[in-house]
From TrEMBL:
The lineage of its organism: Bacteria, Bacillati, Bacillota, Erysipelotrichia, Erysipelotrichales. Coiled coil: none annotated. It comes from Turicibacter faecis. NCBIfam families: PRK11478.1. This is VOC family protein. Residues 4-126 form the VOC domain.
Length: 126
């Protein structure tokens, strides 16, 4: 019934800062960008493999509760081929990452980092 995830939506507190992070640092391709004047909101569609991220801005959005972890979507995970290479690149770009860990069930390596609003992001090695 469900084939794949089409998109994930993220609301940014600072649209330009988050756009820079996702486009210039993470290297996601811009599909389209629209400003919706009636909502005072940007909507940026970004390509991630065969899926998309919708990056929104809305005036006066509340902060996301992260710690202690709140119910709901926990984090967004990107599959990568070489986790050490991506972590090195992120660190050189000023993005702090946690230490690389090994999933006790799959034996695959993974690591967490945050977007500019503190949204937890994960890298998972193929």
């Amino acid at each position: 019934m469900f084939n794949q995830i089409h998109h994930v939506a993220i609301i940014a507190s600072d649209y330009e800062r988050s756009k820079h992070f996702y486009v210039n640092i993470l290297g996601l391709e811009v599909i389209r960008e629209n400003y919706r004047a009636e909502r005072q909101s940007y909507k940026l569609d970004l390509k991630v493999g065969t899926s998309e991220i919708e990056l929104f801005s809305f005036p006066n959005s509340p902060e996301r509760p992260s710690y202690p972890e709140a119910c709901g979507l926990r984090h967004l995970c990107f599959r990568v081929e070489d986790i050490e290479q991506v972590v090195s690149y992120l660190n050189e770009s000023g993005v702090q990452t946690q230490e690389i860990r090994v999933d006790e069930y799959t034996q695959k390596r993974y690591v967490f980092f945050n977007d500019p609003d503190g949204l937890p992001l994960e890298l998972y090695e193929s």
